[in-house]
Amino acid sequence: MKKLFVPFFMLLGISITISSCSDSDDAQYVPITPNASYPEVEAAFGSKLDLNNLSNYANQYIPPYIRKRNGNANPVTDKGATLGRVLFYDKNLSSNNTISCSSCHQQANAFSDTNIASTGVNGMTGRHSMRLINARFAVESKFFWDERAGSLEIQTTMPIKDHGEMGFSGANGDLSFNDLITKLQGIGYYKELFKFVYGTEVITENRIQLALAQFVRSIQSFDSKYDSGRIFVPNDGQPFPNFTAQENNGKNLFLAPPVFDATGNRTGGGLGCAGCHAAPEFDIDPNSRNNGIIGTIAGSGIDITVTRAPSLRDLVKRDGTLNGGFMHTANINSLQAAIGHYGTINLAPGNTNLDPRLRPNGFGQQLHLTATEVNATIAFLRTLSGTNVYTDSKWSSPF
Question: Which residue positions does the secretion signal occupy (predicted)?
Answer without folding.
Answer: 1-22
